[in-house]
Amino acid sequence: MTSPVRPWMTVELAALGERAAAFLTAQAAAHRQRWVEQKHLDRDFWTAAGAAGLLCRSVPAEYGGGGGTLADDLVVLTALVDAGIAVPTVQVQSVIAPQFLVDHGTQEQKHRWLPEMAAGRVVGALAMTEAQAGSDARAMTTRAVREGGTYVITGTKTFITNGSIADLVIVAACTDPAAGRHGISLLLVDTRDCEGFSVTRVIDKVGQHEADLAELAFDRVRVPADCLLGAEGGGWAMLVRQLTKERIVIATTATAAVERAVVLTTRHVNERQAFGRPLIDNQHVRIELAECATEAVVARAFLDSCLVRLLKGSLDDATVAMAKWWLSDLEGQVLDRCLQLFGGYGYTTEYPIARLWANARAQRIYGGANEIMKETVGRSLTVRR
Ligand SMILES: Cc1cc2nc3c(=O)[nH]c(=O)nc-3n(C[C@H](O)[C@H](O)[C@H](O)COP(=O)(O)OP(=O)(O)OC[C@H]3O[C@@H](n4cnc5c(N)ncnc54)[C@H](O)[C@@H]3O)c2cc1C
């Protein structure tokens, strides 16, 4: 079976993908066990990835980034899937956190943070979710109160990727609780030597063990007023805009995981013998694999059509929501079927299929739960009355 040619792929992007694959495969082989035990990637990983030019690829070159498009970052994140490394930690560092700054930061904020993030010397995080404000992010209670030339932040956040290691946390907080979503603002918090800031817990997860997930507390954390990102009260609009990019990343890495699973499983069922013959000699196994391989090709065609429109600037939010829910749902289905064909080996963490399967589960939850995505699609189909 040959893979379809990706219409957005260029010679430069293909070379970047090969470079990323070589770097990430070597890193995973050398360091995965330690990352898993400590529940986060090493500082050395970040600076090495920065030096290799793999971080913040879509940040303009004048701010130290790769000067490319989101396609550059997607190529690197796909290589992470293939290397069996949990994607969210790099996704937040290379796309989510820096894109807030690129789109909404002042010149001073961009020059201060982006070159350091691209070099891997500063690790970034986005803190939106709270214990009582997940899907309903507007219910957040973290407050930021203006006091003279500062904002004073008080509240707690949970499920924050990179939270335990981040130097820069973009914190969503209410500056005007009476104004609903128009009262939410974003603040850039430098956590290094930051009085009142603490990491209260690193949360154990089903998968993605090398990507840390933390609870954070802000106890009257005082930041200068020029740490406000964009306009006061403009936080919700910025979150909505940036979440679209996160959803495309999830759709892309879901498709990459489906493709990777089909490759791994094809190899396994041709090599593994049972009842004196390779597993693939069973019709049921062939049918399972045929269906998964077909779904991988269909998924790729849908994703590529989205990416072509994204790069032209004509991708609408409803189609992004379709891609996020449908491709991450498919990821769960295909990975589960593929794991089954590995038998007991598929349930051991020694086999990459097990890691792919465990890592996939969160994709239907973060970036907006898939049920919320269907609401977005449904609203786009509803005639205004
Ligand atoms: C691995 C991981 C990494 C994360 N990283 C970050 C991060 O870096 N920063 C950050 O701020 N957050 C992060 N999150 C949080 C994530 O965005 C939230 O978990 C997600 O938005 C869902 O919120 P919740 O967990 O509170 O679930 P809830 O809001 O309690 O929802 C639970 C379930 O109810 C259903 N549901 C909820 N609302 C509706 C509705 N309106 N219609 C239909 N069904 C509905 C859905 O099935 C949903 O999954 C991360 C989460 C995980 C698991």
Briefly note the CATH topology name of the largest domain. Answer: Butyryl-CoA Dehydrogenase, subunit A, domain 3
CATH structural class of the largest domain: Mainly Alpha
Calculate Rg over CA atoms: 21 Å
Shape: globular
Short recap of the structure:
The protein is 50% helix and 15% strand. The chain is α+β, with helices and mostly antiparallel strands. A hairpin with a 2-residue loop joins strand 2 and strand 3.
Write a structural description:
It is a single chain. By secondary structure, this protein is of the alpha+beta class. It has three domains: 11-122, Acyl-CoA dehydrogenase/oxidase, N-terminal domain (Butyryl-Coa Dehydrogenase, subunit A, domain 1), CATH 1.10.540; 125-233, Butyryl-CoA Dehydrogenase, subunit A, domain 2, CATH 2.40.110.10; 237-380, Butyryl-CoA Dehydrogenase, subunit A, domain 3, CATH 1.20.140.10. It contains ten helices and ten strands. The strands form three sheets. It has a four-stranded mixed β-sheet with strand order 1-4-5-8, with helices on one face. Helix 1 (11-38) crosses helix 3 and helix 6 (235-271) runs parallel beside helix 8. The structure holds flavin-adenine dinucleotide. Residues 88, 92, 126-129, 134-135, 159-161, 208, 213, 362, 365-366, 369, 371-372, 375 line the site of flavin-adenine dinucleotide.
